[in-house]
Amino acid sequence: MKKLINDPADVVSEALLGMAAAHPDRLRVDHENRIVYRKQEPRPGKVGLISGGGSGHEPLHGGFVGLGMLDAACAGEVFTSPVPDQMMAATKAVDAGAGVLHIVKNYTGDVMNFEMAAELAAADAGTEVRSVVTNDDVAVQDSLYTAGRRGVGVTVLLEKIVGAAAEEGRSLAEVAELAQRVNDQGRSMGMALTSCTVPAAGKPTFELAENEMEVGIGIHGEPGRQRLPLAPAREVAALLVDPVLSDLPYGQGDSVIAFVNGMGGTPLLELYLMYNEVAQLLDRAGITVARSLVGNYITSLEMAGCSVTLLKVDDELVRLWDAPVNTPGLRWGA
Amino acid sequence: MKKLINDPADVVSEALLGMAAAHPDRLRVDHENRIVYRKQEPRPGKVGLISGGGSGHEPLHGGFVGLGMLDAACAGEVFTSPVPDQMMAATKAVDAGAGVLHIVKNYTGDVMNFEMAAELAAADAGTEVRSVVTNDDVAVQDSLYTAGRRGVGVTVLLEKIVGAAAEEGRSLAEVAELAQRVNDQGRSMGMALTSCTVPAAGKPTFELAENEMEVGIGIHGEPGRQRLPLAPAREVAALLVDPVLSDLPYGQGDSVIAFVNGMGGTPLLELYLMYNEVAQLLDRAGITVARSLVGNYITSLEMAGCSVTLLKVDDELVRLWDAPVNTPGLRWGA
Amino acid sequence: MIDKFAAWLRDSAQVLHDNAAYLTELDSAIGDADHGANLDRGFGAVVAVLDETSFGSVDELLKKAGMTLVSKVGGASGPLYGTFFLRFGTALAGAELTPVSIGEGLRAGVGGILARGKAELGDKTMYDAWAPALDAYDAVVASGGDLEAALTAAAEAAAKGRDATVPLEARKGRASYLGERSVGHQDPGATSTTLLLESAARTLA
Amino acid sequence: MIDKFAAWLRDSAQVLHDNAAYLTELDSAIGDADHGANLDRGFGAVVAVLDETSFGSVDELLKKAGMTLVSKVGGASGPLYGTFFLRFGTALAGAELTPVSIGEGLRAGVGGILARGKAELGDKTMYDAWAPALDAYDAVVASGGDLEAALTAAAEAAAKGRDATVPLEARKGRASYLGERSVGHQDPGATSTTLLLESAARTLA
Ligand SMILES: Nc1ncnc2c1ncn2[C@@H]1O[C@H](COP(=O)(O)OP(=O)(O)O)[C@@H](O)[C@H]1O
Ligand SMILES: Nc1ncnc2c1ncn2[C@@H]1O[C@H](COP(=O)(O)OP(=O)(O)O)[C@@H](O)[C@H]1O
Ligand SMILES: [Mg+2]
Ligand SMILES: [Mg+2]
Ligand SMILES: [Mg+2]
Ligand SMILES: [Mg+2]
């Protein structure tokens, strides 16, 4: 395992020390509970937004704490959801009287831990908590009898858009409803050229030959739905875009935010090259790109690969997307 | 070779198509000449700033074109400096009557190609051209008889700071003098855990065993000055910070911009962890961090590793650093 | 009896520590390569609590173990095993400790796993080890067997249930994302459940 | 004579194409793994120009080749080889093509490499192949040898100069960043220079 770390057991806490040191003007970190907060206290009457999940997906979620996005993010161990104590502490801390929205990616562990936290927070402090569970990964068959689809790229777009709505002073019910709508209108699909290595495991989660790729991967180094021969970017783009487009709810004439995300180990050069392929496919499908995002935003440690997320948008969503945001990971207009 | 590309020969041109597609509001790309321009025409009387170099270092340089930074960036083949025709075309296009500054990283090829372009541009259009050559890499011994030190991390900080000064309407002489000062006050050192693979070469530039690292690497996959056994982040940080600090011009009581840069394949989690180590070393050396930057800004394709850059700053440089910038790679206040 | 329950938790912690790499290996194939590290961290914390605190009753001990797991493990297994011990402890509160009451406690604990995880038999989860284990336990107790016999039967049944997860296609948890590709791999959670029950058979009776 | 110069450039393009992977391999060890690709791209463009354009004189042909290399190669070798051909062509303008004038042209071209690159003998660059080649060429011409003999001697001397770069520590170009670690590797540019001169010996006389 080749990593810039000390003891694998200390990776998350030391990275949080680094985040705190690098962003003293904007962030405050509760190191004991592993919670990244905005520096400023929550504004009275603003709905609090918290998210969290396993570490290893940076900048998600800690890097999205700040004006116009999250109020707090709870960091779990690498690829392990945080524990209810963390979400409870964060929930209480960011409750400014208008309630708190939990943004949860649909993984069994994340859902259960957030659920326990919401139950405890409601019982304990009387904080009104609503949750949205993102489940945009079309690689996974959806069914009543399974764990359902994973939450992936849409989570980033949702945190931005819903963050803007919360900043405008909307109520918890409105913010939660908007979050659900954003989730329902977004779909993603990802692929990997290489595995990642969980520090505590010390070796790659899966092995891929020089001429193979995994299609339909998650963001935790889970193997994908299919192992396929390595293909040119053009074909990879189609493998990702086609299942997204053939799923609800996109059609000719629709506008989308097109998001090409790197898994952590793929250079920006390749991500832009992929974006070119994706943009051409969308153009051919008669879909308008209202806004785009290209870069490493929801990653799997050092995995090479990418994912494509499309979020169907209307003027309101675009306006919320364009609203000022000031976080380490996403910043404009501020 | 595992990359998200089509034909290795088309990597740069297809990535530029992607950049143009992803940033239609801010950038304009001359695909024939491979030049990334700001969307808006240059403001009369503003000194034009252009840079360029081999591709594979993204977001450098094309990702730093925009308000408060570069006016144009010329993209060469991967790791190969662009040709004089490109710099000439860019120089003419961004000359708004106040002359043009070329920001050149100190590599024989870059220096020679920019020199030829400056000679030609001066002869051809009468454009006044000044150049600054960055050479901040302390891994390389400096000497009159050699090619001197490489330009690395300081280039990013310089483009930002000098970009802000040009935006204020300073003269070419002032902007060039400032650029030289920034270069002279900055030092860098880098290391690699893995090699990168040049697409046209098809295999890693060098081989490193599982328990080895290269220290003192450049940004083109050049091997480093030393091959050492893999070490914990704490020791790696010292290997990078010590030679920077022992070189001119830092001392107790100085303020710096501290920049921990990823080489492309190292996750943000590890970069923040490294920043924690670097910040501690600076603290112990009595050096104040005025501002910090952590992320992938001057990369070597998919290389894993990082570099540390320290730039000694005064209030003026901090003010210029803080000034608004709106580029795909660096953005705040706008 | 408190000592025996404490011994069980300590022994489990040791066994899970020794098998951490193995559990993570299983989790690499159909999950995210952290099950061993998760349980090692969690049970390590339980042992630290045992070292620091003295408990007045088994139910207090088990509830504290459950809360510690909930607070330290995270992921899917944290709430599941945490809830198991919480409900196991709650069920034992005030009860005399007999093979029957312990069996009822175990069933209450597994009820917690079901309440949280909503798994069904054959979903390729830890429940596939728990369900046959509970039945085997009850059968031994019903036919007059003692705690050791009941726990031994439970552990054996769990091992069979664990092995039976191999050919299954996962429908719950992270392995479910793999669909057909989850077939042919042993479930990490069913494996750790079996280790816990084998430890119980060794230490609790 | 134009045809011979064109044949030289075409043959060089072929040889550099065939050796592209080898040159890049050499550049991987002490540089950035692009020398082969750079020259292949550049000389490919020169051939395209030859296919499209007919030239009235050798100097026009060489100058155009030089400009094409400057415009298409980039890196260190683009300006260096580009300047070489530009000055070679300029020196031949209006001159009668004799072994002597061609020798003067070569020296002018190499003067361009020196002006741009400021290398000295022993810096482990292409100049370490050019310098002995020029001397060998002149010696043969001075003792009455013909163009073929002079170019053959130049190519042989270049090869020796190329081989002599192996033990050197680089002081110019990208290899200089390696300091002592550049010792033991053959310079890519000295290698491509030798290929160009070997091609000249085959095609130009
Ligand atoms: N819904 C569920 N019900 C019961 N057990 C489950 C459920 N989901 C997952 N598990 C169990 O959890 C185990 C994985 O635990 P762990 O790796 O620690 O968590 P995570 O999947 O969050 O990484 C699986 O092997 C499975 O036995
Ligand atoms: N200053 C110089 N003078 C003469 N030749 C040089 C000089 N610098 C580099 N070279 C030659 O250029 C070669 C490298 O060319 P190339 O790989 O195409 O460019 P780059 O180093 O920019 O990647 C070296 O092997 C060396 O022979
Ligand atoms: Mg996990
Ligand atoms: Mg090069
Ligand atoms: Mg797991
Ligand atoms: Mg080279």
UniProtKB/TrEMBL annotation, chains A, B:
<dbReference type="InterPro" id="IPR050861">
    <property type="entry name" value="Dihydroxyacetone_Kinase"/>
</dbReference>
<comment type="pathway">
    <text>Polyol metabolism; glycerol degradation.</text>
</comment>
<dbReference type="GO" id="GO:0004371">
    <property type="term" value="F:glycerone kinase activity"/>
</dbReference>
<keyword id="KW-0319">Glycerol metabolism</keyword>
<keyword id="KW-0418">Kinase</keyword>
<dbReference type="Pfam" id="PF02733">
    <property type="entry name" value="Dak1"/>
</dbReference>
<dbReference type="GO" id="GO:0019563">
    <property type="term" value="P:glycerol catabolic process"/>
</dbReference>
<feature type="domain" description="DhaK">
    <location>
        <begin position="7"/>
        <end position="332"/>
    </location>
</feature>
<comment type="subunit">
    <text>Homodimer. The dihydroxyacetone kinase complex is composed of a homodimer of DhaM, a homodimer of DhaK and the subunit DhaL.</text>
</comment>
<dbReference type="GO" id="GO:0047324">
    <property type="term" value="F:phosphoenolpyruvate-glycerone phosphotransferase activity"/>
</dbReference>
<keyword id="KW-0808">Transferase</keyword>
<dbReference type="InterPro" id="IPR012736">
    <property type="entry name" value="DhaK_1"/>
</dbReference>
<dbReference type="GO" id="GO:0005829">
    <property type="term" value="C:cytosol"/>
</dbReference>
<dbReference type="InterPro" id="IPR004006">
    <property type="entry name" value="DhaK_dom"/>
</dbReference>
<protein>
    <recommendedName>
        <fullName>phosphoenolpyruvate--glycerone phosphotransferase</fullName>
        <ecNumber>2.7.1.121</ecNumber>
    </recommendedName>
</protein>
From TrEMBL, chains C, D:
<dbReference type="InterPro" id="IPR050861">
    <property type="entry name" value="Dihydroxyacetone_Kinase"/>
</dbReference>
<dbReference type="GO" id="GO:0019563">
    <property type="term" value="P:glycerol catabolic process"/>
</dbReference>
<keyword id="KW-0808">Transferase</keyword>
<protein>
    <submittedName>
        <fullName>Dihydroxyacetone kinase subunit L</fullName>
        <ecNumber>2.7.1.-</ecNumber>
    </submittedName>
</protein>
<dbReference type="GO" id="GO:0004371">
    <property type="term" value="F:glycerone kinase activity"/>
</dbReference>
<dbReference type="InterPro" id="IPR036117">
    <property type="entry name" value="DhaL_dom_sf"/>
</dbReference>
<feature type="domain" description="DhaL">
    <location>
        <begin position="3"/>
        <end position="202"/>
    </location>
</feature>
<keyword id="KW-0418">Kinase</keyword>
<dbReference type="InterPro" id="IPR012737">
    <property type="entry name" value="DhaK_L_YcgS"/>
</dbReference>
<dbReference type="InterPro" id="IPR004007">
    <property type="entry name" value="DhaL_dom"/>
</dbReference>
<dbReference type="GO" id="GO:0005829">
    <property type="term" value="C:cytosol"/>
</dbReference>
<dbReference type="Pfam" id="PF02734">
    <property type="entry name" value="Dak2"/>
</dbReference>
